[in-house]
């Protein structure tokens, strides 16, 4: 049997190559995405492991108000330092201060960063300090700083330059040193400006008796766990001692359960799309070849082979193809991961992924999946081959069933109705779970109904072809309609790829439209001072106060970001003066009123979920450990700009020493010139790091900038899935040309020219491609509407982009037919007629 399989594979090299390429690309795609996830995890783990130097134990505030791995904690009493230093076994202990600190470039502007913008003190113990001096010296005076190399280069700063740091007050400083984080220019994209201890206490901690924590190095023979146990008795309530390993594990756990988990799911899902597309291509290849080998299978049955043996032969053939292609795909996946890493580095996701990491888990996932997908894709054709009666070896038989079965039509129709209804129900009820379940069922229904729709679709799409190209166009239409299962199999792979691209396009458009509607519905003013979306960056609240006093301005209010425990849950909150905010934003207040500077307000969504109303008492805990109870004073509906929780600044400022605004909204006086007001605001903002003064449209565009890079990479990945589908179409046509060798020879014999034969094959490919593209556009648009509506976003399909996708599908179909069409046109007439 093994010899028969190997002989069969080697005798049909064209079919072998098509199957190998499909599996190879699918496995390479999946492996590349898994390796990229491993690499990112390894890079983050490396950063965490080096973030604390050789610190054995850290003393810190025990209150956690954020699920983010780098979430800031409140300050502690500096008196703990002397008590810790007296503990037996402490080799050294240094105070650590860390907070917000935005380094300004040489031209006085804020240096852009996707990572935190922090400032603190330079640790004098090189074993505790994760940074090392690359140039210059450590800071000695309060106005001297060491900056990391990435931001020195970005800000065009060098040793000896004068600049400023916003803490948020503007602090003039002299750069006396440039540091590196180990061998890296920065910790991810974190900006870290190091003052002397005195400078950090004065400008960052803003009090000589407060610090962020204590880093401890244990003496020889004292383990970190033992050191932590010795330190704990001297700590005040509200503080804790944590080993360095526990800090690393804690940070990685938060990353794994948060960002990295989402990243792995998103990135691997595209690998799954590529494998699914490859599976359809493999299935179609085996379906055609098994149909062509009908007489061969029947002859095996006539010679005594059982159905199980026929299935085993086909299964073993698929296993050989899957094994060879999967092994090659592992190597190709490594190269693909290197390409993805380069793309993500170019788009600056915030972590420099140095070197590729391949875990055993990724290999254990990719290898079985590659083999399983190949076997499952070949299972249907294998079972059909085993059912061929022995007598079929003695007579001509139809290669394929000419039309879909009644069962397929009934099952497909029921699936389509149920799935569409589920999506519509989820969208109308605003529930993502049923909408997502319906989306999966919709994809299944499209696959089942593909052969049912193939014949009428071929007639519909092929109509223009027959009118444009005459007889070749009509023959192309009839060829596509003659084998609906084959046409649907080739088109379905493309449909899935185009469907996912369309879904992403519509969903992204919906997100942008939602943001535009949110801004339009909440903010009617023309200008926004935008400090960026980084919660450790921004500008002093004094900027909004000064802006409100300008003669051109009718009102201005700033909004800050932070974290607190609200009702026991770590929560992102917005901070503002509600009485000022209501003068520039319409939050559509449904209960109560933003009546005073101390009003605590929540969104209607949260109020409905928690059963809150005006007057409800809510427990709030701040990063410094302090607890308070706030009464809900207003419930609002428009949460796009202010989030779900709006804390009054009067309450927030009592628990932070560095109040910041991330943005400020400006309303002009009647008759005031927008251009003039923008000029005045830009000048006013310059001492605050020159945050961007934007029009409302520019503000909306900037909010989507961060996702644009990631979406571009995702589009690039999905294009590969579409390429796999087009290779499947090309492979199907090539095998179809081989099957129709005699037919093509007869066409040439009765007068068809080579040009007409090429045209016929090309138009057949275009018809299949348009069928798949149209199905993908319809499916993706419908699912994009359903999923977007389920989360409350308006429908924004982007007709220009969808038109480009449709045209690209037709062009790609023509390109996929180039080689099969050329081969069909070159067939020798007499040899083709004599072919079996």
From TrEMBL:
Membrane topology qualifier: Multi-pass membrane protein
Cellular location(s): Cell membrane
MacB-like periplasmic core domain boundaries: 19-233, 487-683
Family annotation (InterPro entries): ABC3_permease_C, MacB_PCD, Macrolide_Exporter_MacB
A Pfam family matched in the record: MacB_PCD
Assigned keywords, A-Z: Cell membrane, Membrane, Transmembrane, Transmembrane helix
TM stretches of this protein: 262-289, 310-336, 356-379, 409-429, 435-454, 487-507, 707-730, 765-788, 800-818
Main localization of the protein described in the UniProt heading: membrane
Domain ABC3 transporter permease C-terminal: 269-390, 717-827
PANTHER family listed in its UniProt record: ABC TRANSPORTER PERMEASE YTRF, MEMBRANE COMPONENT OF TRANSPORTER-RELATED
Family recorded in the similarity comment: Belongs to the ABC-4 integral membrane protein family.
Record's protein name: ABC transporter permease
Organism: Actinomadura fibrosa
